[in-house]
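User: Reviewer 2 asked us to show a designed sequence for the structure in our supplementary figure. I'm pasting the structure tokens here. Could you produce the per-position amino acids so we can include them in the response letter?
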């Protein structure tokens, strides 16, 4: 199936409190990955089928959770299509959840594959590389050291992560 032109919303006013223009652009790009025909809508059932096929649930469970909540909501509305505004609103709501202790813990759980209540510097470096951030291992060590209550630079404990998340949202 050939993709049509990507959908870009024309209404540029920022109605999502915690999304800046760059965030909105990134979300538009993600939306366009699933908007196969370029009409500015995603069919909830089609999205569910894509999620079931791929490795999404292993690679990014929070995104899958957001999509599944969105799909359930749209199915309650008689399978109404997911528009870019509905999509961005759902992501915006999830980002607001990170302002809570439970939200910070949920995010932390994504990054600690071994369930040891720590995130290693190696894991953090992989994440940074995956999102194309140009941060050196030494810079990551400094970051970890600065948020660590124990003064280590090799891993982040859950409490340190939660405290850093809560401070960054004040």
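Assistant: Here is a per-position design you can include in the supplement:
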């Amino acid at each position: 199936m050939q993709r049509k032109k990507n959908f870009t919303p024309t209404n540029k006013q920022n109605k999502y409190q915690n999304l800046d223009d760059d965030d909105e652009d990134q979300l538009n790009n993600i939306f366009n990955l699933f908007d196969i025909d370029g009409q500015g809508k995603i069919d909830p059932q089609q999205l569910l089928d894509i999620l079931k096929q791929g490795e999404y649930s292993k690679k990014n469970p929070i995104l899958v959770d957001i999509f599944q909540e969105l799909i359930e909501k749209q199915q309650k509305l008689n399978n109404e299509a997911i528009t870019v505004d509905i999509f961005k609103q759902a992501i915006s709501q999830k980002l607001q959840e990170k302002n809570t202790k439970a939200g910070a813990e949920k995010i932390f759980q994504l990054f600690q594959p071994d369930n040891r209540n720590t995130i290693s510097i190696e894991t953090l470096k992989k994440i940074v590389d995956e999102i194309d951030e140009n941060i050196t291992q030494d810079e990551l060590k400094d970051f970890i050291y600065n948020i660590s209550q124990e003064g280590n630079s090799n891993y982040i404990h859950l409490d340190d992560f939660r405290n850093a998340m809560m401070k960054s949202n004040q």
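For the response letter, you might also mention the following. DSSP finds nine helices and four strands in the chain. The radius of gyration is 18 Å.
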